[in-house]
Amino acid sequence: MQATKLGIEGLLLIHPKVFGDQRGFFYESWNQAKYNEIGIPENFTQDNISFSQKGVLRGLHFQNPFAQGKLVTVLNGEVLDVAVDLRKNSPTYGKHEKVVLSSENKKQLYIPPGFAHGFMVWSETALFTYKCTEYYHPETENTLMWNDDELAINWFSPNEKFQPIVSEKDRQGCFFNSIGSISC
Question: Do residues 141 and 63 lie in contact, with contact meaning Cβ atoms separated by under 8 Å?
Answer without folding.
Answer: yes
